Amino acid sequence: MSLPLITDYECGISAIDAQFHRPRRAAIHLIVEKGAAALVDTGTSFSVPGVVATLKQKNIAAEDVAYVILTHIHLDHAGGASQCMQFFPNAKLVVHPRGASHMANPIRLVAGAMSVYGEAEFKRVYGEIIPIDIERIMEAPDESRINLNGRSLLFLDTPGHARHHNCIYDECSQSFFTGDTFGVSYREFDVNGREFVFPTTSPVQFDPVAAHTSIDRIMSYKPCYAYLTHYSRIGNLACHAQSLHDLIDAHVAIAQRAKDNGAERQSIISETLRNLLLQKLSEHGCQLPQNEINELLNTDIRLNAQGLIHWLDQSVERLK
């Protein structure tokens, strides 16, 4: 197969395009240390052949992949895990304790996704999800570490987007692999090297208080960069952290204003989020035509609105 888009950084870090829906929407990060390799997130089952081809191009043997690390178990991040474990015979799957059982027995994970997408669309988007041998799964609780050929990777429990979410601090690069905790930043929105970052509030475990806490915890390490799954490396993290805090609060306020609008909540929240992000992108200096911006944002806006509605409903339940 042809190689996916690969972006090489210093410290043995590369971003491999997961080829999820469109180019540069989701990244699989490769870390190489003295011949040993680790992957951070896997994309879907359809992403794995591109990973295998990339490793071959880089002369990394399948047997030298020591770890397949999941930031969390949402299927755009973890859907290729079972195929990766088949290709990489010596690898351990490293996952948050709340996610480990779902990788060993993915029935509930698959059923939940199929209820959203339908069976045919699920298989088209994600392919096959099969169980992973529990003996090959390593739980990574808060502040645990793994050793990649002398390179320390520290795991932090970072809820907010999901309760089964870890961020991984790489001491070599002094940077974090943040999954979805530090938001989304598409390279199409870069302006003169400046990135645009916005939060993901997708279903079903969005928690704004925890999201703020997790961002602050990441920033307490004074990292140089964040490697986001959507999409790859960003700098200027202090500025982006403040922007994420502000936008999380704005998302919550938008949801709360629409809480009494019944069946219209989805459309009202979606359009208000769209207007907010269009305004912020204009202030950022983005010159893309609005139809292109909408095309890039449509899925995120829909999912963010769904997650906010679920959060509203759960908030009401907690008050009963």
Short note summarizing the structure:
The protein has 320 residues and is α/β, with parallel strands linked by helices. The protein contains ten helices and 13 strands.
How does this structure look, described?
With 320 residues, this protein is an alpha/beta fold. 41% of the residues lie in helices and 18% in strands. The chain is built from ten helices and 13 strands. The protein has a seven-stranded mixed β-sheet. Helix 7 packs antiparallel against helix 8, helix 8 crosses helix 10 and helix 9 crosses helix 10. The mean pLDDT is 96.
Strand content: 15-25%
Mean pLDDT: 96
CATH class of the domain at 1-95 and 97-139: Alpha Beta
CATH topology of the domain at 1-95 and 97-139: Metallo-beta-lactamase, Chain A
Number of strands: 13
Spatial extent as radius of gyration: 19 Å
Biggest pleated sheet: 7 strands, mixed
Number of helices: 10
Q: Encode the helix/strand succession as letters.
A: EEEEHEHHEHHHEEEEEHEEHHH
